[in-house]
Design goal:
The protein is 26% helix and 30% strand. By secondary structure, the chain is an alpha+beta fold. Strands 1, 2, 3, 4, 5, 6 and 7 form a seven-stranded mixed β-sheet that branches. Strands 8, 9, 10, 11, 12 and 13 form a six-stranded antiparallel β-sheet that branches.
């Protein structure tokens, strides 16, 4: 557990990087089902990362420090702004506890609330919920939650939600002024008026890795989904006619010099060309096959009376044979 005592912004950024790594890396303590999913951070509008100490007898007090960042319109993360947390509680409690917190800001209004400065009470204007855990990109139904804020808490190596009702988040203006060497509001920091500092590069490397991980996971999921759809589509294809001619009519005519060896028994002799529309895609497997995609309009050169046969057609300047049960008459 990290030091909750307020310090300069450089130290706070370093502490935030360490906390975020502990919440997102698989270790002997934290299995795959006990980490913050990459897509939660990749889709977040903002993040607040803090260390908090709670102590008391009957009446408890809570205090700590950390930073807040916001997602900029171009997808990058803003410079950090220093924040503190304070609160009071009651109940039959005795002792002291130090916790690390990661607060996910899911909506722009949550970021704006942090950026306004002054005191912000979580659980009042902003709905707070325990954030989802695990690496499952598709099956995590918790992402449908309408909570403006997700919270994660680690105390003594365990992840759990923490009640933040009655806790005030405070902008540490003096800490920001010393780090950026001028008076500046949290709003200006979080909305891109300050370039992100090199002192927090470790934190940005971790944050950027979540976007890359989320995109790669998304690509794998899309590839699996496309493979399943393709498999389903191919499973529905009708069987090709078994009596496949050994060569196309055009090839037979070239080799024999006459039309007597044409495999088709019913050539189209009318002036009006016959057109068919492909119901399925067909990729030829032998020379002389006519390739087409579903929806293509094929001009029939010669055909039989059966749809369970091979016909000859022309498409985009190419001539070849195709299974007649893959098309329908126009």
């Amino acid at each position: 557990v990290n030091n909750p005592i307020p310090s300069n912004l450089k130290s706070e950024a370093k502490k935030a990087a360490k906390i975020l790594r502990e919440f997102t890396e698989i270790t002997s303590r934290n299995g795959p089902d006990k980490i913050i999913p990459a897509h939660v951070i990749a889709k977040a509008k903002g993040l607040a990362i803090l260390s908090v100490i709670k102590a008391g007898f009957l009446v408890t007090a809570r205090g700590g420090s950390g930073i807040v960042l916001a997602r900029l319109p171009d997808g990058r993360w803003s410079a950090p702004s220093a924040i503190g947390i304070a609160g009071l509680g009651g109940g039959f409690e005795l002792g002291i506890e130090v916790s690390d917190l990661v607060i996910i800001l899911n909506y722009d209004r949550a970021v704006e609330a942090f950026a306004k400065g002054g005191n912000l009470t979580l659980g009042g204007n902003l709905t707070v919920a325990v954030g989802p855990l695990g690496r499952n990109l598709e099956g995590n139904v918790s992402l449908r939650s309408s909570a403006a804020v997700f919270t994660y808490c680690k105390s003594r190596g365990l992840f759990a939600g923490i009640s933040l009702e009655g806790s005030c988040l405070i902008e540490r203006k003096e800490t920001n002024r010393k780090f950026y060497c001028r008076d500046i509001r949290a709003y200006d920091i979080l909305f891109g008026d300050i370039t992100r500092p090199a002192q927090a590069e470790d934190l940005y490397e971790i944050l950027d890795s979540f976007t890359e991980k989320y995109e790669s996971e998304g690509q794998r999921v899309n590839a699996r989904r496309a493979a399943r759809e393709q498999k389903k589509a191919s499973a529905k294809l009708p069987p090709k006619p078994s009596s496949r001619p050994q060569q196309s009519p055009a090839q037979a005519q070239l080799s024999s010099g006459s039309q007597s060896k044409c495999f088709c028994c019913n050539s189209n002799t009318s002036n009006q060309p016959i057109e068919v529309t492909a119901l399925y895609s067909f990729e030829g497997q032998q020379p002389g096959d006519l390739n087409f995609q579903a929806g293509d309009r094929i001009t029939v050169i010669s055909k039989t009376d059966s749809h369970f046969d091979w016909w000859e057609g022309k498409l985009r300047g190419q001539t070849g044979i195709f299974p007649a049960n893959y098309v329908t008459m126009n």
